[in-house]
Specification:
The complex is a heterodimer. Chain A has ten helices and twelve strands. Chain A is an alpha/beta fold. Chain A has one domain (5-245): Aldolase class I (TIM Barrel, Alpha-Beta Barrel), CATH 3.20.20.70. An eight-stranded parallel β-barrel of chain A has the order 1-4-5-6-7-10-11-12, surrounded by eight helices. The mean pLDDT of chain A is 92. In chain B, the strands form three sheets. An eight-stranded mixed sheet of chain B has the order 2-1-3-4-12-11-10-7, with helices on both faces. Chain B has a two-stranded antiparallel sheet with strand order 5-9. In chain B, strands 6-8 form a two-stranded antiparallel sheet. The radius of gyration of chain B is 16 Å and the shape is globular. The chains are: A alpha/beta, B alpha/beta. The A-B interface holds A 1-5, 40, 45, 67, 70-71, 74-76, 93-99, 119-124, 167-168, 196-198, 221-222, 251, 254, 256-257 and B 15-19, 22-23, 26, 51-53, 56, 116-125, 143, 145-149, 167-168, 187, 189-193, 195-197, 221.
Chain lengths: 257, 222
Amino acid sequence: MLRRRVIPCLDVAAGRVVKGTRFVDLVDEGDPPELAARYAAEGADEIVFLDISATPEGRATLLEVVERTARRAFIPLTVGGGVRSVDEMRAVLRAGADKVSLNTAAVADPSLISRCAATFGRQAVVVAIDARSIANHRWDVRVAGGREPTGLDAVAWARRAASLGAGELIVTSIDRDGTHSGFDTDLLRAISSSVTVPVVASGGAAGPADFVAAVTEGGADAVLAAAIFHRRIHSIGEVKAAMAAAGLPVRLAKEAA
Amino acid sequence: MTPPPLVAVVDYGAGNLVSIEQALTAVGARVAVVPDPPALAGADALVVPGVGAAAPAMERLKRQQLVEPIRRWIAEERPYLGICLGLQLLFEGSDEDGATTLGILAGRTVRLADAPTLPHIGWNQVERRRSHALFDGIADGADFYFIHSYAGAVSDDAPETILAETTHGRAFASAIAAGALLGVQFHPERSGTDGLRLLANFMAIVDASRSGPAADPAKVLA
Protein backbone atom coordinates (compact mmCIF):
# COMPACT_ATOMS: atom_id res chain seq x y z
CA MET A 1 0.00 0.00 0.00
CA LEU A 2 1.24 3.48 -0.89
CA ARG A 3 2.58 5.21 2.21
CA ARG A 4 1.68 8.72 3.31
CA ARG A 5 4.91 10.67 3.16
CA VAL A 6 6.56 12.89 5.78
CA ILE A 7 8.79 15.50 4.15
CA PRO A 8 11.16 17.92 5.85
CA CYS A 9 11.44 21.18 3.93
CA LEU A 10 14.73 23.01 3.78
CA ASP A 11 14.45 26.68 2.86
CA VAL A 12 17.85 27.56 1.46
CA ALA A 13 19.35 31.06 1.18
CA ALA A 14 22.99 31.67 0.26
CA GLY A 15 23.80 27.98 0.79
CA ARG A 16 22.33 27.78 4.30
CA VAL A 17 19.04 26.43 5.65
CA VAL A 18 16.88 29.22 7.07
CA LYS A 19 13.39 29.43 8.45
CA GLY A 20 11.04 32.36 8.90
CA THR A 21 7.56 33.10 10.11
CA ARG A 22 4.93 33.94 7.47
CA PHE A 23 7.84 33.94 4.99
CA VAL A 24 9.91 36.66 6.82
CA ASP A 25 12.19 36.99 9.90
CA LEU A 26 14.72 34.38 8.76
CA VAL A 27 16.78 32.35 11.25
CA ASP A 28 19.81 30.19 10.31
CA GLU A 29 19.10 26.47 10.79
CA GLY A 30 22.19 24.74 9.40
CA ASP A 31 24.05 23.17 6.45
CA PRO A 32 21.65 21.72 3.82
CA PRO A 33 23.39 18.39 3.04
CA GLU A 34 24.06 17.84 6.73
CA LEU A 35 20.40 18.32 7.65
CA ALA A 36 19.21 16.26 4.66
CA ALA A 37 21.44 13.34 5.64
CA ARG A 38 20.20 13.54 9.21
CA TYR A 39 16.57 13.50 8.05
CA ALA A 40 17.19 10.60 5.65
CA ALA A 41 18.65 8.59 8.54
CA GLU A 42 15.67 9.49 10.72
CA GLY A 43 13.19 8.17 8.16
CA ALA A 44 12.25 11.18 6.02
CA ASP A 45 10.45 9.97 2.89
CA GLU A 46 11.72 12.83 0.72
CA ILE A 47 13.49 16.14 1.08
CA VAL A 48 12.24 19.42 -0.35
CA PHE A 49 14.70 22.26 -1.00
CA LEU A 50 13.34 25.72 -1.64
CA ASP A 51 15.80 28.33 -2.82
CA ILE A 52 14.27 31.38 -1.18
CA SER A 53 16.93 33.80 -2.36
CA ALA A 54 16.46 32.78 -6.02
CA THR A 55 19.10 35.21 -7.25
CA PRO A 56 21.60 34.32 -10.01
CA GLU A 57 24.41 33.91 -7.43
CA GLY A 58 22.01 31.96 -5.23
CA ARG A 59 21.21 29.64 -8.13
CA ALA A 60 24.82 28.55 -8.66
CA THR A 61 25.16 27.95 -4.92
CA LEU A 62 21.91 26.00 -4.94
CA LEU A 63 23.02 23.63 -7.73
CA GLU A 64 26.17 22.87 -5.79
CA VAL A 65 24.13 22.29 -2.61
CA VAL A 66 21.69 20.04 -4.51
CA GLU A 67 24.51 17.91 -5.86
CA ARG A 68 26.22 17.59 -2.47
CA THR A 69 22.89 16.59 -0.95
CA ALA A 70 22.02 14.09 -3.70
CA ARG A 71 25.37 12.43 -3.07
CA ARG A 72 24.67 12.03 0.65
CA ALA A 73 20.98 11.24 1.03
CA PHE A 74 19.62 8.26 -0.91
CA ILE A 75 16.06 9.52 -0.80
CA PRO A 76 14.21 11.68 -3.32
CA LEU A 77 14.88 15.36 -3.60
CA THR A 78 12.49 18.06 -4.83
CA VAL A 79 13.99 21.45 -5.57
CA GLY A 80 12.15 24.70 -6.11
CA GLY A 81 12.52 28.45 -6.03
CA GLY A 82 13.00 30.72 -8.98
CA VAL A 83 12.95 28.10 -11.77
CA ARG A 84 11.74 29.98 -14.85
CA SER A 85 12.48 27.81 -17.89
CA VAL A 86 12.89 24.29 -19.25
CA ASP A 87 16.67 24.85 -19.33
CA GLU A 88 16.78 25.92 -15.68
CA MET A 89 14.75 22.85 -14.76
CA ARG A 90 17.16 20.65 -16.71
CA ALA A 91 20.12 22.09 -14.78
CA VAL A 92 18.45 21.35 -11.45
CA LEU A 93 17.58 17.77 -12.47
CA ARG A 94 21.12 17.18 -13.71
CA ALA A 95 22.46 18.40 -10.37
CA GLY A 96 20.60 15.53 -8.70
CA ALA A 97 16.99 16.61 -8.12
CA ASP A 98 14.21 14.12 -8.85
CA LYS A 99 11.46 16.73 -9.08
CA VAL A 100 11.41 20.46 -9.63
CA SER A 101 8.83 22.69 -8.10
CA LEU A 102 7.48 25.67 -10.06
CA ASN A 103 5.67 28.59 -8.48
CA THR A 104 5.86 32.25 -9.54
CA ALA A 105 7.02 31.51 -13.10
CA ALA A 106 4.18 29.02 -13.63
CA VAL A 107 1.59 31.61 -12.59
CA ALA A 108 3.15 34.17 -14.94
CA ASP A 109 3.26 31.65 -17.81
CA PRO A 110 1.22 28.47 -17.22
CA SER A 111 2.61 26.95 -20.45
CA LEU A 112 5.87 26.46 -18.52
CA ILE A 113 4.14 23.57 -16.71
CA SER A 114 3.20 21.79 -19.94
CA ARG A 115 6.59 22.44 -21.54
CA CYS A 116 8.45 21.02 -18.52
CA ALA A 117 6.08 18.03 -18.34
CA ALA A 118 6.55 17.32 -22.06
CA THR A 119 10.33 17.41 -21.67
CA PHE A 120 10.86 15.59 -18.37
CA GLY A 121 7.57 13.78 -17.74
CA ARG A 122 4.82 15.03 -15.47
CA GLN A 123 6.15 13.06 -12.50
CA ALA A 124 9.11 15.47 -12.36
CA VAL A 125 6.97 18.61 -12.33
CA VAL A 126 5.64 19.88 -9.02
CA VAL A 127 3.61 23.07 -8.76
CA ALA A 128 3.84 24.88 -5.45
CA ILE A 129 0.82 26.96 -4.55
CA ASP A 130 1.10 29.59 -1.82
CA ALA A 131 -2.45 30.42 -0.75
CA ARG A 132 -3.80 33.15 1.49
CA SER A 133 -7.31 33.07 2.90
CA ILE A 134 -9.47 35.95 1.62
CA ALA A 135 -12.93 34.79 2.75
CA ASN A 136 -14.58 31.68 4.10
CA HIS A 137 -13.46 28.83 1.82
CA ARG A 138 -11.78 31.22 -0.62
CA TRP A 139 -8.04 31.43 -1.07
CA ASP A 140 -6.00 33.74 -3.27
CA VAL A 141 -2.77 32.50 -4.89
CA ARG A 142 0.22 34.61 -3.95
CA VAL A 143 3.60 34.68 -5.69
CA ALA A 144 7.06 36.17 -5.18
CA GLY A 145 7.58 34.49 -1.82
CA GLY A 146 4.03 35.22 -0.68
CA ARG A 147 4.30 38.95 -1.22
CA GLU A 148 2.18 39.47 -4.34
CA PRO A 149 -1.52 38.68 -4.63
CA THR A 150 -2.58 37.35 -8.04
CA GLY A 151 -6.36 37.33 -7.96
CA LEU A 152 -6.22 33.62 -8.90
CA ASP A 153 -8.47 31.28 -6.95
CA ALA A 154 -6.24 28.60 -5.36
CA VAL A 155 -8.58 25.69 -6.09
CA ALA A 156 -9.11 26.73 -9.70
CA TRP A 157 -5.36 27.19 -10.14
CA ALA A 158 -4.67 23.76 -8.63
CA ARG A 159 -7.06 22.16 -11.10
CA ARG A 160 -5.51 24.04 -14.02
CA ALA A 161 -1.94 23.22 -12.98
CA ALA A 162 -2.78 19.52 -12.75
CA SER A 163 -4.48 19.56 -16.14
CA LEU A 164 -1.45 21.30 -17.69
CA GLY A 165 0.87 18.54 -16.48
CA ALA A 166 1.80 19.06 -12.84
CA GLY A 167 2.42 15.64 -11.29
CA GLU A 168 2.16 16.86 -7.73
CA LEU A 169 1.04 19.98 -5.83
CA ILE A 170 2.65 21.46 -2.73
CA VAL A 171 -0.08 23.51 -1.07
CA THR A 172 1.14 26.04 1.48
CA SER A 173 -1.13 28.11 3.68
CA ILE A 174 0.60 31.48 4.07
CA ASP A 175 -1.71 32.22 7.01
CA ARG A 176 -0.40 29.21 8.88
CA ASP A 177 3.25 29.11 7.72
CA GLY A 178 5.60 29.22 10.70
CA THR A 179 2.75 29.90 13.15
CA HIS A 180 2.50 26.38 14.64
CA SER A 181 -1.29 26.57 14.48
CA GLY A 182 -1.90 23.46 12.39
CA PHE A 183 -2.42 22.91 8.65
CA ASP A 184 -5.33 24.60 6.89
CA THR A 185 -7.29 21.39 6.36
CA ASP A 186 -10.16 23.24 4.64
CA LEU A 187 -7.75 24.48 1.97
CA LEU A 188 -6.20 21.02 1.64
CA ARG A 189 -9.56 19.31 1.34
CA ALA A 190 -10.81 21.83 -1.22
CA ILE A 191 -7.77 21.09 -3.40
CA SER A 192 -7.26 17.35 -2.80
CA SER A 193 -10.90 16.66 -3.67
CA SER A 194 -10.51 18.61 -6.93
CA VAL A 195 -7.45 16.86 -8.42
CA THR A 196 -6.16 13.28 -8.79
CA VAL A 197 -2.46 14.14 -8.49
CA PRO A 198 -0.83 13.82 -5.05
CA VAL A 199 -1.21 16.83 -2.74
CA VAL A 200 1.52 17.77 -0.26
CA ALA A 201 0.30 19.73 2.79
CA SER A 202 2.50 22.60 3.95
CA GLY A 203 2.40 25.46 6.42
CA GLY A 204 1.54 25.40 10.11
CA ALA A 205 2.70 22.06 11.54
CA ALA A 206 2.97 22.18 15.33
CA GLY A 207 2.76 18.55 16.41
CA PRO A 208 2.12 14.98 15.24
CA ALA A 209 -1.68 15.41 15.48
CA ASP A 210 -1.49 18.07 12.76
CA PHE A 211 0.12 15.58 10.34
CA VAL A 212 -2.68 13.11 11.02
CA ALA A 213 -5.30 15.82 10.40
CA ALA A 214 -3.65 16.92 7.14
CA VAL A 215 -4.27 13.40 5.82
CA THR A 216 -7.55 12.41 7.46
CA GLU A 217 -9.26 15.82 7.22
CA GLY A 218 -7.29 17.46 4.44
CA GLY A 219 -6.91 14.42 2.17
CA ALA A 220 -3.17 15.10 1.76
CA ASP A 221 -0.92 12.37 0.33
CA ALA A 222 2.17 13.80 1.98
CA VAL A 223 2.89 16.28 4.74
CA LEU A 224 5.72 18.79 4.77
CA ALA A 225 7.21 20.73 7.67
CA ALA A 226 10.35 22.66 8.50
CA ALA A 227 10.83 24.34 11.86
CA ILE A 228 9.50 21.56 14.10
CA PHE A 229 12.07 19.17 12.59
CA HIS A 230 14.97 21.64 12.37
CA ARG A 231 14.56 22.62 16.00
CA ARG A 232 13.98 19.03 17.11
CA ILE A 233 10.61 19.92 18.62
CA HIS A 234 9.33 16.66 17.15
CA SER A 235 11.19 13.91 15.33
CA ILE A 236 10.09 12.31 12.08
CA GLY A 237 9.76 9.06 14.04
CA GLU A 238 7.30 10.63 16.51
CA VAL A 239 5.23 12.04 13.68
CA LYS A 240 5.12 8.70 11.87
CA ALA A 241 4.27 6.81 15.07
CA ALA A 242 1.28 9.11 15.54
CA MET A 243 0.21 8.59 11.93
CA ALA A 244 0.55 4.82 12.26
CA ALA A 245 -1.45 4.88 15.51
CA ALA A 246 -4.19 6.72 13.61
CA GLY A 247 -4.27 3.86 11.11
CA LEU A 248 -2.43 5.68 8.31
CA PRO A 249 0.05 3.70 6.18
CA VAL A 250 3.56 5.04 6.80
CA ARG A 251 7.06 3.75 6.13
CA LEU A 252 8.63 3.08 9.48
CA ALA A 253 12.37 3.61 9.61
CA LYS A 254 14.54 0.60 10.31
CA GLU A 255 17.53 0.73 12.55
CA ALA A 256 20.59 1.48 10.44
CA ALA A 257 22.14 -1.71 9.07
CA MET B 1 42.96 -8.99 -7.15
CA THR B 2 40.14 -8.36 -9.63
CA PRO B 3 39.03 -4.74 -9.80
CA PRO B 4 35.40 -4.02 -8.84
CA PRO B 5 32.87 -4.50 -11.66
CA LEU B 6 32.60 -1.64 -14.14
CA VAL B 7 28.99 -0.57 -14.54
CA ALA B 8 27.99 1.43 -17.61
CA VAL B 9 25.13 3.79 -16.82
CA VAL B 10 23.46 4.85 -20.05
CA ASP B 11 23.15 8.64 -20.32
CA TYR B 12 20.43 9.55 -22.79
CA GLY B 13 19.47 12.82 -21.19
CA ALA B 14 16.68 11.38 -19.05
CA GLY B 15 17.20 13.40 -15.90
CA ASN B 16 19.07 12.78 -12.68
CA LEU B 17 22.14 10.54 -13.06
CA VAL B 18 23.87 11.82 -9.94
CA SER B 19 21.79 9.57 -7.66
CA ILE B 20 22.33 6.31 -9.54
CA GLU B 21 26.01 7.03 -10.06
CA GLN B 22 26.48 7.82 -6.38
CA ALA B 23 24.45 4.82 -5.18
CA LEU B 24 26.39 2.37 -7.40
CA THR B 25 29.65 3.89 -6.22
CA ALA B 26 28.47 3.52 -2.62
CA VAL B 27 28.06 -0.25 -3.13
CA GLY B 28 31.53 -0.61 -4.58
CA ALA B 29 31.04 -0.36 -8.34
CA ARG B 30 33.23 1.53 -10.74
CA VAL B 31 30.79 3.63 -12.75
CA ALA B 32 31.09 4.91 -16.32
CA VAL B 33 28.39 7.27 -17.56
CA VAL B 34 27.94 6.22 -21.16
CA PRO B 35 26.59 8.51 -23.89
CA ASP B 36 27.72 6.48 -26.94
CA PRO B 37 28.59 2.90 -28.03
CA PRO B 38 32.42 3.11 -27.72
CA ALA B 39 32.11 4.02 -24.05
CA LEU B 40 30.45 0.65 -23.43
CA ALA B 41 33.72 -1.17 -23.99
CA GLY B 42 35.00 -3.03 -20.98
CA ALA B 43 31.77 -2.74 -18.98
CA ASP B 44 30.66 -5.71 -16.89
CA ALA B 45 27.09 -4.56 -16.51
CA LEU B 46 24.65 -2.17 -18.11
CA VAL B 47 22.28 0.00 -16.11
CA VAL B 48 19.57 1.87 -18.00
CA PRO B 49 17.92 4.44 -15.72
CA GLY B 50 15.42 7.09 -16.69
CA VAL B 51 12.05 8.59 -15.97
CA GLY B 52 9.47 10.10 -18.27
CA ALA B 53 7.95 9.09 -21.57
CA ALA B 54 9.07 6.31 -23.92
CA ALA B 55 8.97 8.06 -27.30
CA PRO B 56 11.52 10.81 -26.56
CA ALA B 57 13.69 8.23 -24.77
CA MET B 58 13.73 5.88 -27.78
CA GLU B 59 14.39 8.89 -30.01
CA ARG B 60 17.46 9.85 -27.98
CA LEU B 61 18.74 6.25 -27.78
CA LYS B 62 18.48 6.04 -31.58
CA ARG B 63 20.20 9.38 -32.08
CA GLN B 64 23.05 8.23 -29.81
CA GLN B 65 23.20 4.91 -31.74
CA LEU B 66 22.66 2.96 -28.55
CA VAL B 67 19.66 0.84 -29.56
CA GLU B 68 21.61 -1.90 -31.35
CA PRO B 69 24.40 -2.10 -28.72
CA ILE B 70 21.75 -2.48 -25.99
CA ARG B 71 19.95 -5.21 -27.97
CA ARG B 72 23.24 -7.03 -28.56
CA TRP B 73 24.17 -6.72 -24.88
CA ILE B 74 20.89 -8.34 -23.86
CA ALA B 75 21.12 -11.01 -26.60
CA GLU B 76 24.55 -11.97 -25.25
CA GLU B 77 22.89 -12.47 -21.86
CA ARG B 78 25.11 -9.99 -20.10
CA PRO B 79 23.95 -8.37 -16.82
CA TYR B 80 21.36 -5.63 -17.38
CA LEU B 81 19.40 -3.63 -14.83
CA GLY B 82 16.61 -1.42 -16.10
CA ILE B 83 15.26 1.13 -13.68
CA CYS B 84 11.78 2.65 -14.17
CA LEU B 85 11.79 3.76 -17.84
CA GLY B 86 14.82 1.48 -18.36
CA LEU B 87 12.50 -1.45 -17.49
CA GLN B 88 9.53 -0.17 -19.50
CA LEU B 89 11.65 0.16 -22.65
CA LEU B 90 12.18 -3.63 -22.63
CA PHE B 91 8.53 -4.21 -23.51
CA GLU B 92 7.04 -4.03 -27.02
CA GLY B 93 5.53 -0.59 -26.84
CA SER B 94 4.06 2.06 -24.59
CA ASP B 95 0.45 3.17 -24.34
CA GLU B 96 1.69 6.48 -22.97
CA ASP B 97 2.62 7.86 -26.37
CA GLY B 98 2.30 4.90 -28.73
CA ALA B 99 6.09 4.47 -28.93
CA THR B 100 7.54 1.22 -30.23
CA THR B 101 10.12 0.09 -27.70
CA LEU B 102 12.78 -2.64 -27.65
CA GLY B 103 10.38 -5.61 -27.68
CA ILE B 104 12.65 -7.90 -25.70
CA LEU B 105 9.87 -8.78 -23.26
CA ALA B 106 6.37 -9.69 -24.45
CA GLY B 107 3.72 -7.23 -23.34
CA ARG B 108 3.14 -3.48 -23.35
CA THR B 109 3.68 -0.58 -20.97
CA VAL B 110 0.22 0.47 -19.80
CA ARG B 111 -1.28 3.12 -17.51
CA LEU B 112 -1.77 1.95 -13.91
CA ALA B 113 -5.39 0.84 -13.67
CA ASP B 114 -7.81 2.01 -10.96
CA ALA B 115 -5.10 4.06 -9.25
CA PRO B 116 -6.49 6.39 -6.56
CA THR B 117 -3.81 8.98 -7.40
CA LEU B 118 -1.60 9.40 -10.45
CA PRO B 119 1.32 9.68 -10.81
CA HIS B 120 2.07 6.92 -8.31
CA ILE B 121 4.57 8.84 -6.19
CA GLY B 122 6.05 7.64 -2.93
CA TRP B 123 7.09 4.56 -0.99
CA ASN B 124 5.15 1.38 -1.59
CA GLN B 125 5.56 -2.27 -0.72
CA VAL B 126 7.34 -4.68 -3.02
CA GLU B 127 5.87 -8.15 -2.58
CA ARG B 128 7.94 -11.10 -3.72
CA ARG B 129 6.43 -13.59 -6.16
CA ARG B 130 9.52 -15.78 -6.27
CA SER B 131 12.93 -15.72 -4.64
CA HIS B 132 15.88 -14.17 -6.44
CA ALA B 133 19.38 -13.06 -5.44
CA LEU B 134 18.41 -9.47 -6.29
CA PHE B 135 16.34 -9.37 -3.09
CA ASP B 136 18.74 -11.22 -0.79
CA GLY B 137 18.58 -9.82 2.73
CA ILE B 138 15.58 -7.62 1.93
CA ALA B 139 12.32 -8.30 3.76
CA ASP B 140 9.35 -9.38 1.66
CA GLY B 141 7.02 -6.37 1.48
CA ALA B 142 9.83 -3.84 2.03
CA ASP B 143 9.13 -0.27 0.89
CA PHE B 144 10.77 1.18 -2.21
CA TYR B 145 10.34 4.58 -3.87
CA PHE B 146 8.14 4.83 -6.97
CA ILE B 147 7.51 7.77 -9.30
CA HIS B 148 5.58 6.81 -12.46
CA SER B 149 2.13 6.54 -14.04
CA TYR B 150 2.77 3.60 -16.39
CA ALA B 151 4.22 0.12 -15.91
CA GLY B 152 5.08 -2.85 -18.11
CA ALA B 153 2.31 -5.46 -18.22
CA VAL B 154 4.09 -8.82 -18.33
CA SER B 155 2.51 -11.23 -20.81
CA ASP B 156 0.35 -14.00 -19.32
CA ASP B 157 2.59 -16.43 -21.22
CA ALA B 158 5.60 -15.55 -19.07
CA PRO B 159 4.37 -15.27 -15.46
CA GLU B 160 7.73 -16.52 -14.18
CA THR B 161 9.25 -13.24 -15.39
CA ILE B 162 7.55 -11.46 -12.47
CA LEU B 163 9.83 -11.26 -9.44
CA ALA B 164 7.70 -8.95 -7.34
CA GLU B 165 4.46 -7.03 -7.48
CA THR B 166 3.20 -3.78 -5.98
CA THR B 167 -0.36 -2.58 -5.59
CA HIS B 168 -1.61 0.93 -6.38
CA GLY B 169 -5.17 0.45 -7.52
CA ARG B 170 -4.35 -2.95 -9.01
CA ALA B 171 -1.19 -5.01 -8.69
CA PHE B 172 1.55 -4.48 -11.29
CA ALA B 173 4.98 -6.07 -11.84
CA SER B 174 7.45 -3.99 -9.83
CA ALA B 175 10.47 -6.24 -10.46
CA ILE B 176 11.20 -8.67 -13.29
CA ALA B 177 13.92 -11.17 -14.11
CA ALA B 178 14.59 -13.16 -17.26
CA GLY B 179 18.03 -14.67 -16.99
CA ALA B 180 20.60 -11.88 -16.83
CA LEU B 181 17.91 -9.33 -17.67
CA LEU B 182 16.68 -7.56 -14.52
CA GLY B 183 14.31 -4.64 -14.16
CA VAL B 184 12.68 -2.68 -11.36
CA GLN B 185 9.88 -0.14 -11.65
CA PHE B 186 10.95 1.58 -8.42
CA HIS B 187 14.13 3.60 -7.83
CA PRO B 188 16.66 1.65 -5.74
CA GLU B 189 19.00 4.66 -5.86
CA ARG B 190 16.32 6.63 -4.01
CA SER B 191 15.12 3.88 -1.67
CA GLY B 192 17.43 4.27 1.31
CA THR B 193 19.13 1.24 2.87
CA ASP B 194 17.03 -1.41 1.11
CA GLY B 195 17.69 0.28 -2.22
CA LEU B 196 21.44 0.20 -1.63
CA ARG B 197 21.13 -3.43 -0.59
CA LEU B 198 19.39 -4.27 -3.85
CA LEU B 199 22.14 -2.55 -5.83
CA ALA B 200 24.78 -4.40 -3.78
CA ASN B 201 22.97 -7.63 -4.64
CA PHE B 202 23.06 -6.65 -8.31
CA MET B 203 26.81 -6.07 -8.01
CA ALA B 204 27.19 -9.54 -6.48
CA ILE B 205 25.25 -11.00 -9.42
CA VAL B 206 27.51 -9.10 -11.83
CA ASP B 207 30.59 -10.25 -9.99
CA ALA B 208 29.44 -13.88 -10.12
CA SER B 209 28.91 -13.56 -13.87
CA ARG B 210 32.60 -12.72 -14.23
CA SER B 211 35.09 -15.43 -13.45
CA GLY B 212 35.97 -14.40 -9.91
CA PRO B 213 34.68 -15.14 -6.48
CA ALA B 214 31.38 -13.45 -5.73
CA ALA B 215 31.47 -10.44 -3.44
CA ASP B 216 29.53 -10.69 -0.20
CA PRO B 217 26.80 -8.00 -0.46
CA ALA B 218 26.82 -7.53 3.31
CA LYS B 219 30.51 -6.62 3.12
CA VAL B 220 29.99 -4.43 0.08
CA LEU B 221 27.43 -2.40 2.03
CA ALA B 222 29.46 -2.12 5.21
